[in-house]
């Protein structure tokens, strides 16, 4: 099957190999400031990653030149990006707005966005989850949760 | 040696410890029954919640989840032809045709009894084999311990199958993460970039939750589950006790599957799927009616389920004695042990006999409880779990992940770090980079470095100190065999095919 991408360099494994190479090379610089014995293992691993990423890149490019098409990483990129963004937004919201408000909004929002459209079910699930968390962690175990940097707490 | 085993028994019967196993088994069945969730993911999410618990309560939960999830995977495998866990793939071959014939209830009963028998056999293997092996490893010095760590990493990279370059990249990444933080001997910072939160290194739980819990959540949200549905309310279930006499003739399959599962569990990197496939094939090969297999033969369900549960506790034999886990779940469980200050290896048996032997008993009771809890409830109640909406489940797991990681040190930095590892884990998962070497790299990296540096100090910097005794040389030879073996085997098979 012919390569369907415009450039062979945009194949997922090739991009990953380049990413590993760049990051490993970047991390290699701080090892020069370490004592030799302290740098031994991390430097060995980083050099290993550099070499292995080259192998990965060459193997993937060889597949590309043989006409092997690379499978896409996801069939639903918008849903995956959306899921990641929602998870990151939830973490940021917990940090800046506070845990309970963010959780009470996130549970129904994520479930609704990704296809569960029963308002009663969402309400019941949110109340049960948030209530159980409060009862077990806050009330039972005195666990503190983020209260929100925006409110200066 | 075995007297410690009996001494540990009363602690296991303390009500909190016993309740933990019961809750773990139920939770495990629930998790296993949900396609997309696995024991590895469940234990990863659970570990941070066990910080404040007694070790045996935490370990009881883990043992219960592991046992329960292995059986739970059979529920969607039988009812929907979707394996709940990877180890349940072979269960679909005959389980689903049975469900289509209206015998889904009996298929699940065969699955639960077989799973229980496999789990019991596996727990006995752990009890019998781990203590003597730990005595041998007590004789190891720093250079031998270093080579054990190298052997462990090599075996999980090369025996796991797949692409060795990707396995090596995973392992290098894991070992690199293990060195982040203060140097254990000189105390200087390594790759902390001025972040005080990273001085103590990367907590293994953060990595576990990121790698093993985030990718399945993304999967849950990415693809809505579509089934060609068997109605779970019409299973044709009868009492388990009435169904048992029909299973009497499976004893040979149970015995063979148990032995295969135990053996494969001990081998690093093999895992429950391989055990189930091998047991299924062996049972079909020796069957008097092989033509009925694949069309709803209950013995096929028995063969697959007994083997995938027989692999559970036995995977912990190398994990507890040498620190080398046999499966991904065992790797995550090692992380759970470390959280409670229990360093896997020979010292674990000497310093914490009550905990380690109590853990073994918990595996045994977890396997027995499978029949009692799964048998009466599974056929109808657990089958209804398949109707739970996946997006809702995903959103609840996201919240649990955040709570678990935040509660380790009470700081959001760890949550952001977990999300970073989660993104890396998702990419690795999609590009088929194996995840267990990352976890093992993190566990064994620091361990290997410490012992390597100790050995070099003893040898006054001479690297030949690493090759100066027979045990080290044997371990080096084993490592070379593990690295070179699969390549030689492949070449041998290729040359035979050409010939």
What do you see in this structure?
- The complex is a heterodimer of chains A (153) and B (499).
- By secondary structure, chain A is an all-alpha fold.
- Chain A has two domains: 8-65; 77-151, no CATH class.
- Helix content of chain A is 68%, strand content 0%.
- Chain A has helices at 12-28, 36-65, 77-96, 99-113, 119-140.
- The longest helix of chain A is centred in the first third of the chain and has 30 residues, at 36-65.
- Chain A is flat.
- The mean pLDDT of chain A is 90.
- With 499 residues, chain B is an all-alpha fold.
- Chain B has one domain (3-498).
- Chain B is 72% helix and 1% strand.
- Chain B contains 23 helices and two strands.
- Chain B has helices at 3-7, 9-12, 15-33, 39-46, 55-72, 74-80, 89-100, 104-137, 142-158, 164-179, 204-222, 240-243, 251-266, 272-285, 298-314, 316-322, 328-339, 346-351, 353-384, 390-409, 412-430, 436-458, 470-498, and strands spanning 181-182, 189-190.
- In chain B, strands 1-2 form a two-stranded antiparallel ribbon.
- In chain B, β1 (181-182) and β2 (189-190) form a beta hairpin.
- The model of chain B has no long low-confidence stretch (mean pLDDT 84).
- Classes of the chains: A mainly alpha (153), B mainly alpha (499).
- At the A-B interface, α1, α2, α3, α4 and α5 of A face α10, α11, α20, α21 and α22 of B.
